[in-house]
Amino acid sequence: MYTKMPHWLTKQAYLHPEKPALEWPDGRKLTFLELKEASERLAKKLANLSIGKGTRVAILSRNSFDMIAAIHALSYLEALIVFLNVRLTERELMYQLEKSKAKILLGERSLLEEKRLAFPKQYTFEDIHSLSEKEVRLAEVIDLTAPFTMMYTSGTTGFPKGVIHTYGNHWFSAIGSVLNLGLDDDDKWLLTLPMFHVGGLSILIRSVTYGMTVFFMEKYDVKTLKEALYEKKVTVASLVTLMLQQLLDEIGEEPFPEHVRCLLLGGGGIPEPVLERAVQKQMPVFLSYGMTETSSQIVTLSAAYIRKKIGSAGKPLFPASVKIDNPDEAGIGEILVKGPMVFHGYDEMPDVNEQVFKDGWFHTGDLGYLDEDGFLYVVDRRSDLIISGGENIYPSEVEQVLMAYPGVKEAAVVGKRDACWGEVPVAFVVAKDAIAEDALIEFVRRKIASYKAPREIIFVDRLPRNASNKIMRRRLKEQLD
Amino acid sequence: MYTKMPHWLTKQAYLHPEKPALEWPDGRKLTFLELKEASERLAKKLANLSIGKGTRVAILSRNSFDMIAAIHALSYLEALIVFLNVRLTERELMYQLEKSKAKILLGERSLLEEKRLAFPKQYTFEDIHSLSEKEVRLAEVIDLTAPFTMMYTSGTTGFPKGVIHTYGNHWFSAIGSVLNLGLDDDDKWLLTLPMFHVGGLSILIRSVTYGMTVFFMEKYDVKTLKEALYEKKVTVASLVTLMLQQLLDEIGEEPFPEHVRCLLLGGGGIPEPVLERAVQKQMPVFLSYGMTETSSQIVTLSAAYIRKKIGSAGKPLFPASVKIDNPDEAGIGEILVKGPMVFHGYDEMPDVNEQVFKDGWFHTGDLGYLDEDGFLYVVDRRSDLIISGGENIYPSEVEQVLMAYPGVKEAAVVGKRDACWGEVPVAFVVAKDAIAEDALIEFVRRKIASYKAPREIIFVDRLPRNASNKIMRRRLKEQLD
Hints:
Two copies of one chain form a homodimer.
Chain A: E1 4-6, H1 8-15, E2 20-23, E3 29-31, H2 32-46, E4 56-60, H3 65-76, E5 80-84, H4 90-100, E6 104-107, H5 109-115, E7 122-124, H6 125-129, E8 141-143, E9 147-153, E10 161-166, H7 167-181, E11 188-191, H8 198-210, E12 213-216, H9 222-230, E13 236-239, H10 241-251, E14 262-265, H11 272-280, E15 285-291, E16 296-301, E17 315-316, E18 321-325, E19 333-338, H12 350-356, E20 357-358, E21 361-370, E22 376-380, E23 386-388, E24 391-393, H13 395-403, E25 408-418, E26 422-431, H14 437-447, E27 456-459, H15 473-480
Parallel strand pairs in A: 2-12, 4-5, 4-6, 5-9, 6-7, 11-12, 11-13, 13-14, 14-15, 26-27
Antiparallel strand pairs in A: 1-8, 2-3, 9-10, 15-16, 16-17, 18-19, 19-21, 20-21, 21-22, 23-24, 25-26
């Protein structure tokens, strides 16, 4: 099959030179042509660092124009971008930098100064801007089979695994979304989720494949969000539950504007009272299920079904399939997914890949069932994944840190419902000796990103285990309700 | 790359079971679920004829529900459909049936009776309906790399050649169109062009990939067309120039309905006066350029540019590229196209394929140029080029001048052999009123270089056109020999 097409940004600059690619809350705009030219200039500067086809370049940045230009520039150089989560600790970042074999690290100055990473080739965006432009041949076509981005996700096993997305994964994800949500000339998609996660990055990809304006809210705050929806003609917004909640409070009694046609909710379940308020205000809330491995949403519940199918994540997007592996009497089993937006494997992990892919089906590790109409219900996230304010927390990773503390014998981390964050991590600990809660939490904070640290430690005599000696996390969660 | 996805019709029946897949002018509707079930039943009946993966099955039919169900049914059996043009003579049809190695011929009863083809395995749709259903495994997935349809090109260059379309060609054609035209939940696309041509078939493909209703006007007439646009909430219609012309006459002074967002014009250039009337009525006319080999439109001019870029065919769709080969001083050269909707080659014609594909670019044989903004202007079919005394004459340029003369309804210019000049241009003209030959020639001479003016005008009642409404210039040339 012919798998190539013109370079996405170049093509949009040709099709819609004067259309805004980016619009900021303060009214500034940048057209597709200007974005292309800025990205090309940056690519020519980056070329001084010997970045070429397949070079792995890490980016450590909060959402910013520099980050967007760098993503496109690295695409023009056919590099593989390794996205780093800015909230990770120095230790976590170094692990990913080494594991990914990144040759170069690009970043926001304040972050590079803060993290003080022992990584040789690191450059701030300002460093790059000061370079001269090197004459190099920039990519004119995109090959859907080529790798484009990499993001680390921890998963069941605790240690982070690199998820590689090809251009084709991103393309089919964007197309799956457009066939579900439709597309209008005047569409403007609000981007405030971090682009180092696939939920944020995928909005940038949709912009450049659809020729659609991104409303770029670099720093999130609810007042700006409301203004974007009410005054700035944003039509689609990707949000996490916390933002929706704050938005509801901010709106109060005001009616919701009709031109907003989709509020796409990702990142875990939404508390029913919040959903109820949103539906009563006739907000077009679309729930979705997805993960880094599926290049963002792969199952989506249209707003039309939100009352009829309460608790469902919806149906798989047009090019995707979902099935339940080995269902129990209640129909519950592991959720398997398939489709051209599903990644092909973790970076350099043949053994893990063999386990998670069977007959082309990716085993998500999540539990769920399909109802009689084929709507998916996610019962439990993989290995009791905790989703807190849109960030994934893998209990096993936190447990390993806890158990490294003197006097801790066993530890189990579970999510506790939280009105603000959706969930927060709480630890159950079996201690050999007396341990101070504060000291233990502080110990964790120094090792891993602070959002992963337990908010609370509950000391117990033993952990509930099943016959095969596995910790029964659901039993623990019940104690918290 | 993973190139599979769920079977399109099965998926739409799952996503939108109750949404109409088809709607008829008399108000009848058929949902995606009903269409799937009807197609599955037909597939199980067809299975009695030993149709399996790759079996070549020809269809000879005017637009009908039987034809639609047969297309989907053959897709469930993974057959390769050979579409036959119902206007062909018995001899032409036999040539294509033999050349295509079709094993089975399915058709409309009246056509099979009329054509009396000496082909052994021919069945009317009624024959198939009377069979019992055989239990076979129907395709659950579509592989984009698999061949799906074959059509013989009208053959401007001579003998008919079989164009094979893969599922991927059709998929990327549909996606290229949606990224250009957008997509709305309420979209309803009028289908009245014959499905044995790619212009008609592509509407069926869009329906089943977008989950969009087709307004199915099996027999074209202008009153029903007007009613569809005005009363039946059709939002998009694919038309040829003649239909647009008749529509304009039918509408008269009535305003054009706002919910119609696209009238897609294919099948050759449009006379400027017609376009002018349409634009004055604020009809959203999209001009396009494409051919069987590109799986329908590959270059489209958005309505927004219709005044600014008069005469242009527009810009290539998102996944496609166009370039001009070997341009002359005026920038005119052969139009080359590339992209995942472009076919991979003519059936069993390795020599021709080697000629028409170079570095992945398909050489269309058409002449054109790109203006400074990258808009394509199609100057002429290469085979129609008239070369007179070393000067190039492009018939369409002369025809446009002729049609600007009061009383001229249609005009076609072809080359006549000339002992002195090689060729000289001669015009065939359909006149509404009596026209003096001398005066008309003089009119042209004053508009364009005199060597381009016809030496002779032949007044005729009508111009010979093929099924896609293209003027058959060779028929005219033959009259001159």
